[in-house]
Amino acid sequence: MLRSVQRVAQLSHHFKSRTPIDKISNLSILSNTKKMSHLFEDGTPAEVKNAKGLHLITMNTPNGQKVQIMLEELHEVYGTEWTQTFINIMTNEQKKDWFLRLDPNGRIPVIVDHTQSPPFPVMETSAELLYLLKFADKNDVFGFKDELERSQALQWLFFWHGSGAPYQGQVNHFAKFAKEKIPYAIDRFRNETLRVYGVLEIQLSGKYTGSPREYLAGEGKGKYSVADIGTWPWVKGWEFSGFSQEDMKPFPHLLKWIERIAERPAVKRGIGEKYQQK
């Protein structure tokens, strides 16, 4: 009898000493809360901090439009939902601590994915497009399952990210916004942007393959993909950047590509009134 009582006592002590499930759960919550604490501060807008799913922080600029269009396209195919916060980059809101916690580079747009635990911030437009492709486009409607086609899409996406947007952005800065107009800087970035347009024209015209294309990546005439979504919002603004019809004459296939993509309903929504700040 004594042995039985002792054994019960030992078992009771054993189970009491183990961490209960609810304690494990509480520890997990505390851990995630601690991880979240570096993402948000008192100055973080409530709609960013308390969002329940995908949340986009944006402004209706070419970079903002890349992700806006991608989300609109995903909504059309899968019913993808998200919420959004608009900021005005002209007031340097993106340089405040609450924003820099999410993107230390201080650039829009930023995605905060609250479906992850803790919430997961994504910066840099090409990375954001690829993140949405991975987690929200299960059928690769805007990507490719074939590895070589996928590589081609990445090549053109990165080409514009690294060799196109920076040049056209500098054209806009020096020709439109800089207090001092520096002819050398304006000419250099204008010429480089036109050169990059020429690279896109080579791909779309099929100059070296003999087969014109409708889109930047994919077999045959290509398929509308993240490569196009990541490039089009900048290139379609060629007039805003100060280029004339005469400047654009060498790029007929590029101009047709601009028009072709502009007709997509999701593209119209992605740059439209929904994203105009009141």
TrEMBL record:
PROSITE patterns: GST_CTER (PS50405). InterPro entries: Glutathione-S-Trfase_C-like, Glutathione-S-Trfase_C_sf, Glutathione_S-Trfase, Glutathione_S-Trfase_N, GST_C, Thioredoxin-like_sf. It holds the Pfam family GST_N_2. CDD domains: GST_N_Ure2p_like. It comes from the Eukaryota. Residues 146-278 form the GST C-terminal domain. Belongs to the GST superfamily. PANTHER family: GLUTATHIONE S-TRANSFERASE GSTA (PTHR44051:SF8), GLUTATHIONE S-TRANSFERASE-RELATED (PTHR44051). This is GST C-terminal domain-containing protein. It comes from Lepraria neglecta.
